[in-house]
Amino acid sequence: MGMNVNYPGLRTLYDKYKAEGFQTIAFPCNQFGGQAPGTDEEERAWAIRKFGFEFDVYDKVLVNGPSAHPLYRFLKAQQPLAAPGAAQPGRPQGDVAWNYEKFLVDRSGQAVKRFKSALDPLSFEADDTAAATS
């Protein structure tokens, strides 16, 4: 089943809060068990077809290592851990541990929270979406 169980919750949040300026964006990454092996177009089409995404699905990126995308270097610098003890053994502290790790960015462009992959997006809805849209 994988962590793509996050998609319905992300879609729900987007649909509920988009009128208030809430945005959801996705960056496929193949660094975790080869779970995004397709081309950029194939990965985007899969997300749209399977979950009816209306939000932006960008090209695949690297999220860890020396070639990590600048956005992920920025996000990880601002929010180094998804939760206490969330660093994966054998990985540098701050690395994204698995696909579907989520960052909440406020209107001023600051990463204000980071959530583990397994956390259902709807579980942080109330307080955290308010922080992003105000």
From TrEMBL:
Biological process (GO) annotations? Answer: response to oxidative stress
UniProt-listed InterPro entries:
Glutathione_peroxidase (IPR000889), GPX_CS (IPR029760), Thioredoxin-like_sf (IPR036249)
Keywords, comma-separated and alphabetical: Oxidoreductase, Peroxidase
Q: Which GO terms describe its molecular function?
A: peroxidase activity
**Pfam families named among the record's database cross-references:** GSHPx (PF00255)
Q: Which Gene3D superfamilies does UniProt cross-reference here?
A: Glutaredoxin
**Which family is this sequence assigned to?**
Belongs to the glutathione peroxidase family.
PANTHER family documented for this protein: GLUTATHIONE PEROXIDASE
UniProt protein name: Glutathione peroxidase
